[in-house]
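I have been asked to look over a protein record a colleague put together. What it holds is a sequence and that sequence's fold in token form. Please read both lines and tell me whether the tokens look consistent with the sequence. I do not need a full report, just your reasoning and any doubts. This is what I was given:
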Amino acid sequence: MSNLIRRDPFDDLLRGFFVRPVDIGGGGGVAEAPQMRVDVKEDSDAYQVHAELPGIKKEDIHVHIDGPVVSISAERKQEKEIKEGERVLRTERYFGKVSRSFQLGQEIDEAKSSAKFNDGVLELSLPKKAPEQAKRLTID
């Protein structure tokens, strides 16, 4: 004979919500470093890169280009604004540095590259460097 077990679908949903106590001890642990989400597109002349960097100021973003390697680093600084009589029960937002490097298929022309930062999205326009023609040496 088989046993039937009756389950309430809301039980699992609410269990995680109500069972975990709020950490009143002072901060609620360390948040994990977020991943920088990046989209890279290519056309015949350039690469277009869009990187999500929400909550970061544009002066805290650095882009470094070395040949075909692009490195993006950013830092989100914690602004402690605790008012008198206020206690922090839980902090889940990440504060610190995040970085990402990737290699593209062709070298980048740093002089013609440009960057914009709008609504938490860094937009890079990275023109491809024209390949150098091999020189043929003449023999005297």
